[in-house]
UniProtKB/TrEMBL annotation:
The lineage of its organism: Eukaryota, Metazoa, Ecdysozoa, Arthropoda, Crustacea. It comes from Petrolisthes manimaculis. This is Sulfotransferase domain-containing protein. Residues 80-355 form the Sulfotransferase domain. Belongs to the sulfotransferase 1 family. Keywords: Transferase.
Length: 376
């Protein structure tokens, strides 16, 4: 699909007078309501191509997202691919770096290791998250240059990630924030998937800082307002629980490994051994230690953001609150959530957690009762 056809397609999706349409996956795309724009949207920088809801789950995505979701249905995954998935700000970048190092740099000799992780391991949903028409003004010239080198003649308006992934040799390690039901139907049968889960209280704190940090979003609302919008399924990239449950219902699939952020923080080496078994990387003791060293929070923070530090980030927020890698701890919500917000989130978790056998209580440690999610 070239630039002109893409423009026609986007106009049909975002035209206020157009009828709702279906994705290739069967979900229905509608423009967000005026009420959402006035209550939530006013605190966010407006996407140039609008914001849509994808039903029935109600995903709140940039207006460009249906174009890339339909392209994703035609993308050819390979059996050697590894995809790291998770809701935004659940630790997927940490796991992405861990897996890339395990598979490409266990001896710490790979010359590409100093490049940003999003250049070495592409983010499938990046084109949707960042809205490609903003790339020029966000200072993403290195990504534009990389596309030109890897895919001569290809248009940046048709996205970066999927076009570059098409020409990358295997095994490809990629990340994705889309939920399972937005992926191709045979996706999990083809390749290995690692899904990252995190205490939603820590997720909402990290997500708030992230949307303030990234200049494209520039969230201006209060933290209390943000939490309420998050738990009421009104925040950009939500809702949270359908994303989690779509992974959890697939937990017995042999190609899926679910990993908890809290377990990684509590005992990284044990989780590394489980990943090693799942991926079949067969690392020795020294290589395991190398991976642990290179993926430690201090090591990753010292490298900087997953992309080159550019105009993409709000520098005043970065200096005051921390950059992309802010704290890297479990339980930081205790320093942020008020008693009232904590109580609201406790009820929200209790009402929605379903059969996920895990407790995220005030003083309780993460309970390792997930059984076959830690490798069958």
């Amino acid at each position: 699909m070239g630039r002109s056809s893409r423009s026609v397609w986007l106009k049909a999706v975002t035209d206020k007078n157009s009828m709702s349409r279906k994705l290739l996956t069967g979900q229905v795309v509608e423009e967000v309501s005026e009420e959402w724009k006035e209550s939530v949207g006013k605190d966010l920088q407006q996407y140039k191509q609008g914001v849509v809801r994808i039903l029935p789950e109600g995903w709140i995505y940039p207006g460009v997202s249906p174009f890339f979701l339909d392209k994703l249905q035609q993308f050819q995954f390979r059996t050697e691919d590894v995809v790291i998935m998770g809701y935004p700000k659940c630790g997927s970048t940490w796991v992405q770096e861990t897996v890339w190092t395990m598979m490409n740099n266990p001896d710490l000799t790979n010359p590409h290791a100093e490049e940003g992780i999003w250049y070495r391991s592409l983010e499938i949903s990046m084109d949707m998250l960042m809205d490609v028409v903003n790339f020029d003004e966000l200072g993403m010239e290195p990504m534009i240059e990389t596309l030109g080198k890897m895919c001569p003649g290809k248009s940046k308006e048709d996205g970066f990630a999927l076009q570059m992934l098409e020409v990358l040799p295997g095994p490809r390690i990629m990340k994705c924030h889309y939920a399972f039901e937005l992926m191709p139907p045979d996706f999990l049968d083809k390749n290995k998937v690692i899904y990252v889960l995190r205490n939603p209280k820590d997720t909402v704190v990290s997500f708030y800082h992230y949307l303030r940090l990234v200049r494209l979003y520039d969230y201006k609302g209060s933290f209390e307002k943000f939490v309420k919008e998050f738990i009421n399924d009104q925040m950009l990239f939500g809702p949270y629980w359908p994303h989690v449950h779509q992974a959890w219902t697939r937990r017995s699939h042999p190609n899926l490994h679910i990993i908890f952020y809290e377990d990684l923080k509590a005992d990284f080496m044990t989780q590394l051994h489980l990943l090693d078994k799942f991926l079949g990387t067969n690392l020795d003791t020294q290589q395991m230690q190398n991976v642990q060293h290179i993926t430690a929070f201090t090591s990753m923070k010292s490298k900087g953001a997953p992309v080159n530090d550019t105009a993409c980030f709000n520098q005043s927020v970065s200096e005051k609150e921390g950059g992309f890698f802010r704290k890297g701890v479990a339980g930081d919500w205790k320093n942020t959530l008020s008693p009232e917000l904590n109580q609201e989130m406790d009820k929200w978790i209790k009402d929605n957690i379903g059969d996920i056998p895990i407790k995220w209580g005030d003083d309780e440690k993460h309970q390792k009762t997930h059984g076959n999610t830690n490798r069958k």
